[in-house]
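Technical annex B. To support the medicinal chemistry partners, we prepared a structural model of the target in complex with iron/sulfur cluster, based solely on the information shown next.
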Amino acid sequence: MPYAQGAVCAAVEPKAFPLRVEQWFKGNARDLPWRRRRTAYGTVVSEFMLQQTQVVRVCDAWQQFLRRFPTISSLARAPEQDVLAAWAGLGYYRRARHLHAASKAMVALHRGHVPRARHELEALPGIGPYCAGAIASIAFGKREAIVDGNVARVIMRVHGRAVNLTKSTGKRWVWRRAQQYVDAADDPSCANEGLMELGATICTPRLPRCEECPLSALCRARRMGSQQRIPAVRSAPKRMRVHRAAILAESAGWMAQCILPPRGLWARLPFPPMEESGRRLSAAMLAARLGIHKSALRCCGSFVFQTSHREVHFVVWRMDARVAQRLRHAGRDGWFWRPVRSVTKAPSTGAVRQILQCGGRLSRSV
Ligand code: SF4
């Protein structure tokens, strides 16, 4: 339904901006699990999960996570592998480790409660200025600014100005406007969450729905017809291409696994053993690295896995069962063996699921 337009203003009226958003949000907020019964801990978990992950994927994961770890102290007590397993499907596992570390810090420093002050929140692992502002304002009603991609886009369009967010002057400009915005709000929680919601659902990057927008009467970009030019489109950074050969080695119901190094992609997560290289490894090159004959390796598939910065080209190799058995009995640095059933049933990353699918160990529908 088109929103009442009202008179077009020459300048952005500071009070009208948050008030229109608050009024709109009260009638249009999506029904999301963490909004039904708001708790500070639930807000922290949702903010961690929503970084770089779409809302639809977070909804189920958030509910399962809260069932598994209902309190900060239950999360703090849990082994890391349990936390990572509960994070399965969300990707960017560093966030799970940070959330786990933050829960321990909250137990140690804040008696198991979420701190209310921005500076205390920012001192916790994995919580930056945006996340701290979101938690302080949404969970505790503090007048703290937030700026993420959605918020910055709405602010820039409303003010009719495309600033460069990779420059400190641009960042400062947006943060100042975001602070003015929340200072003028009736309810900082509603105003900030409403602004995020508006950016996610109405003022979208490519096709903003200005006719349904509560800010259309204030919005300079709309008046100038420059919505598509604000923010300025910058070319996406080129992804680095890397190659990984994944090895499916099974012996009498056991499968070889390794734990990835503590830094880098999928840090410290269990994977089938892998060899990384600058270009695709042939069977002979991979066999030489493994110290086996190339006839013991059979290629069973390949796929490309994209992350925000990398394009990982996987080739999946199945190892001959007798050779795998020999390696299992001889032992091999960095490899350990788990029952195949527990590998295929355990929650895992999207890349591991695709590796197992290539080897026929998971159905395509998984
Ligand atoms: S009027 Fe259009 S461009 Fe302006 S804030 Fe609303 S959706 Fe965005």
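Notes passed to the chemistry partners:
The chain has a mean pLDDT of 92.
The chain has two domains: 16-229, 240-358.
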